[in-house]
Each structure stands twice: as structure tokens, then as C-alpha cells.
């Protein structure tokens, strides 16, 4: 495991229970949820009805955290498999799902699909392939090996399945992540530690995302910039970043 992977595992394991404790974090999660749901049709998803037993829409929620993407897409999918490098996040995901009534067919496990050393045996099970949709929600800038991570997720899609990534748009003169003084709910020391888990501190461009999606063999690339900025922090410490969604479809 690389230094970045180890740091992400450590930091986000310890932060899991307070991941959305601050008001600005709650607002951001609510905003991302609303924006994803508003773009569901664009993503190729439609609401499931109670009588729609014939449809089986499987989501792979990678770097799932406490389940924001899975829960946002609950009206459109029948099952979700979360994977996260941080055990604390996996525990939080499964805990939150268990409290839902009725609890959906969602489950998370600890794992790393982005390791240069290969994928562990426990992630090779048949039910961890053949997904209709795979997603990374605001985690891509934490990944060290970008193309590898996209390639590995595409391998797990069925033919015709889609990958989408929600992340930060790189813009000229934007302040890099870690250069702001933001309290993430754990004090300034945590903010500094969290910044060290981010190798791509400026986010990504449309062109860069399209190049990686094309290299992975994905088709029908599209990219939307969300109108509402992501405001991180409260008061004088707050700063904003622009969010995008990139998507592509496996042939």
C-alpha cells in the first residue's frame, strides 16, 4: 500500500463517525444528493416502481464513504455494493443502511481496487462484477493512480454499463485543496491531515477526464458542470469549488 493509500485509510477511518457532523458538511451532502438525483435521467436511470420486479439495477459505489451516492440513487437501483479503503467508513455505511426502514439491499466492504500491486482475492468474487453502474462520489481527487482506478472499475461493469464520477473542476486561479484554512469538524490539525490525502489538489478538467475515459474504452462521454458551487467551511473560513459529473458507457 502506497503512502497516499495508507494515509487515506488512516485519516478517513478515524474521521468516519464525524464525516458529516458540521452544518456545511450536511448542506454539501444534501446538495450533492439533489444534484445527482436531478441528473438521474442523464445518467440513464429511471425511478423504480414497487411493481417493477423484473428490473435489477446494480450499483458499484467505490470510495463509498458513509453511503452518500448509494443513498442518493436508492430510488433508481435495486442493490448497491460499496467498497472503501477505510474500515471506519465501511462500518458507518453499513450502520446507516441498517437504520433505514425498510433497509435496502446495500452493503459495503473494505477494499482497494486501485493498488498497483493488484486486487486482493476477496474482491474477485463473481458478485463484485457485472454492475449496471459504477460511481465515485467526490473521492477521485484522493486517488493516486487515476487511469488504473478507472480501468479497474470499467472491468466490473457489464456491457452497456455506465461509469460516472463526481468531483472538483479545475479552474484557473482556484486555490488548491489544502491551502484553505477549513475546519472539517475535527480541528485545524485534521484539516491539515486531510489535505495530505489529496494528490490532485486542483481537481480535473473536462479534457483530462475525457482522455482517461476514452483510454479505458468508454463511449458516449459527457460532462456537466453543476450550477451550484460546493461551499466548504463556515463563516470566514468558507471557500467554494465547482463540481462536475463525468460519464461514459462500456461498449
Helix run count: 7
Strand order of the largest sheet: 3-2-1-4-5-9-6
| Bulk shape | globular
CA-based gyration radius: 17 Å
Unreliable spans are: 182-188
Characterize the largest beta sheet: strand count, sense, and whether it forms a barrel. Answer: 7 strands, mixed
Your description of this structure?
With 251 residues, the chain is α/β, with parallel strands linked by helices. It is 29% helix and 23% strand. It has helices at residues 3-15, 23-38, 68-72, 87-98, 146-155, 188-195, 206-215; strands at residues 58-62, 79-84, 105-110, 131-137, 157-168, 218-225, 230-232, 239-241, 243-250. The strands form two sheets. Strands 3-2-1-4-5-9-6 form a seven-stranded mixed beta sheet, sandwiched between helices. A two-stranded antiparallel ribbon has the order 7-8.
